[in-house]
Amino acid sequence: GSLPKLEGGPTTLPLSDEGLYLIVDSSGASLPIIVGTKVFNEALGEDGGFVDFTDAGVNGKPRLGQAALKTTVTDVAKFVVNDPGSDGFDVGSRVDFEVQVPVPSSLPDGVSFDDYVFDVSDSPDSSLKFDVSRGVSVLLDAQDVSGELAGDITFTEDSLKVSNVGKLFAEGGSSQVVLRAGMSGKTVLIRYSAVLQTDALLSKPADVKANANTVTLTRTKSAVLPDGWTLDGDAGTEWKQASAKVYSFRVDVVKADKDALSTKLAGAEFEVSRDEQTLKFVKLAGEGEYRLATLGETGVTTVSTGAGGKLSLQGVEARELSFMETVAPSGYFKVSDFVIGTVPTWNEDVSAVTAVSYESSGSNLANVSEDGGHVVVLDPAWSLANLPYTGGMGILILLVVGALILVFAVRPYILSKRAERDANLI
């Protein structure tokens, strides 16, 4: 079948059967894409049902039965290229950017080569500092051409400018600038890195915040101003911007009494690990607030809940964190180890996070709150009834106590039976 012209909104194509379908954009502006319909699952009830993947739409994974056609880059685009898991970054981590600038299909009339402007610039906000030690790489058609622009690159912690990019694909004609032969359709790639700073914006459920970094392409103005471009006053140039969004996250925990949920517990201490490596944190000014320690910071391996039983771990990737309670509040048993995962939901082209949620596992005393805003961890107060909640040791103790009670309960019965037998013998 065929779809009508897409105007940005979703369009449905009726199909005769489930399966894999190839969608081709007749205009050539998008790459072909294969998309699968939802799958019929007989295990879901007597009649079965068409289902999606359980984690579809999470971390950039596609949804069955949906396809998002993406147009090719026509002017300028910017991407984060070292986040394969789409789980964001720890503060202090390196973020690798790639700017894509296609070679123009045509150049403006009446402009000499010396007057032709084609510059790329980038000035990050305070949440990012450029990693000058790694330098800037410029590629054309997968070939490193950084040397041709060696004198045209200015790179500091706070700014990047690559001037005269046009010399890579243009040359002076008899009267004006022209494209070099064979350059049409090629793309200039500019690669550089930044470090995510400790004051980065952090995302959590119901409060998604991106650290957006914007690149600007400035070029000699066209005869007619294209859509999306802005005329730069009387400078004779026009500019367009593209952004890449960098995310870091926070994990919020609240400690409470298992049998009196309104009683919040301060002073519970935890060791937090990821991939079996203990993490270090820096104590912040707020009660129970900690930030992941960056390279060179000492940090602490134990974090504790503050007033209101709150614990906030900030500046971490959206990955699973393992919690081991090392010290319980006075009068309470420690809970068994548990895991908290942060799950970002990305939009269709994985360019922006649209929502964040928590998930928990490992202990039935650690659960996501009803509003999804934090994870509630319940400590059982000291009592015989709460021994099973302390894990294997608590259950063992309860079994031993139960066995002793049984022994004392059965002994009078045995003695009674023995006395009755002796009496019968007499």
List strands and helices in order, with pairings.
Layout: E1 20-23, E2 33-36, E3 39-41, E4 49-51, E5 77-80, E6 94-102, E7 118-122, E8 128-130, E9 137-140, E10 143-144, E11 153-155, E12 160-162, E13 170-172, E14 177-179, E15 187-196, E16 211-220, E17 230-231, E18 237-246, E19 249-257, E20 260-264, E21 269-274, E22 277-278, E23 281-283, E24 289-292, E25 302-304, E26 310-316, E27 321-327, E28 338-346, E29 353-361, E30 366-368, E31 375-379, H1 392-425
Descriptive notes:
The longest helix has 34 residues, at 392-425. This protein starts with 19 loop residues before the first strand and ends with a helix. It is mostly beta strands and 426 residues long. The relative contact order is 0.11. The chain has one helix at 392-425; strands at residues 20-23, 33-36, 39-41, 49-51, 77-80, 94-102, 118-122, 128-130, 137-140, 143-144, 153-155, 160-162, 170-172, 177-179, 187-196, 211-220, 230-231, 237-246, 249-257, 260-264, 269-274, 277-278, 281-283, 289-292, 302-304, 310-316, 321-327, 338-346, 353-361, 366-368, 375-379.
